[in-house]
Amino acid sequence: KRFEQINGDFGWKPHKLDPKECAAVAYDGYWHKGLGCAYGAFYAIVGLMGEKYGAPYNQFPFAMLEVGKGGISDWGTICGALLGPASAYALFWGRKERNAMVSELYRWYETAKLPIFNPAKGVKGDLPTSVADSVLCHVSLSRWCFENKVEANSKARSERCGRLTADVTYKAVEIMNAKIDGTFKPALAAPQSVTTCGECHAKGKEADNMKSVMDCTPCHSGNEHLMNKFKDHP
User: Fold this and answer.
1) Nearest residue to 217 (alpha-carbon basis) of 232, 199, 234
2) pLDDT (tens digit, 9 = 90+) per residue, 167-222?
């Protein structure tokens, strides 16, 4: 029948995984046939469950997640390394349980110095890091390139994104494992910009025209590169 899912909505059972193993698989998945970050991160969770537990996990058309590459078909929107785990979470939990997990992962991504992961094979050594301050691929990637004087279309930038995919997957699996154990508790608060902007632009406020919990400042800080400057705001 229409809209009815076998085993019910969010009917797949999640299994705990080793974050370190998942990170390595995510890195390899990023490079696999050039499928990229969302594929690498998603496969490192659901694909590994398939390798270990068989159906239904191994029946998923994993290449579908290639769409997340480059912030979804090169549009620079949500980082594909974040889209992958959020999509994996959504196989197991509805939004009332899942949203806090996604928020914890995304807030960590906004504030962490990345990349951290150092692969056992391929390019050796540490890479320079940056703090994205945003979950958007365009902001995250461009900031890393600008701060470290690396070209966006270089092999070094691709290596950075492969390692970032591993980092995000490691954190995502830690969150998932805690959720399965019943010990998950969100620890990261929203930045001050969300609270400040919400004083005027949230539901029931003077100008109810904001619907987001991401850090506001990367897009609304009024630096010289932003076309959308708000003259009436500081």
Assistant:
1) 234
2) 999 999 999 999 999 999 988 667 666 666 666 766 777 766 666 676 666 666 65
Locate 183 and state its tokens: 């010990």
Residues 6 or more apart whose CB falls under 8 angstroms from that of 152 comprise 141, 142, 145
Q: What percent of the chain has pLDDT over 90?
A: 71
Q: b/e map of 202-230 (b: 16 or more CB within 10 Å)?
A: beeeeeeeeeeebbbbbeeeeeeeeeeee
Cis check for the bond before 115: say yes or no (omega within 30 of 0).
yes
**Closest Cα partner for 28 from 124, 137, 122?**
122
Q: How far apart are the C-alpha atoms of 99 and 104, rounded to whole Å? A: 9
pLDDT in tens, 175-187: 999 999 999 998 8
The alpha carbon of 154 is separated from its chain's Cα centroid by a whole number of angstroms, namely 22
* Alpha carbons 111 and 220: distance in angstroms, whole number: 17
Return the structure tokens found at 1. Answer: 């029948």
Count of H helices and E strands in the chain? Answer: 9, 2
Q: Which residues, 6+ apart, have CB-to-CB distance to 98 below 8 Å?
A: 86, 89, 90, 92
Alpha helix positions (H), the chain: 19-31, 37-42, 48-53, 80-89, 95-111, 137-148, 155-181, 192-201, 217-220
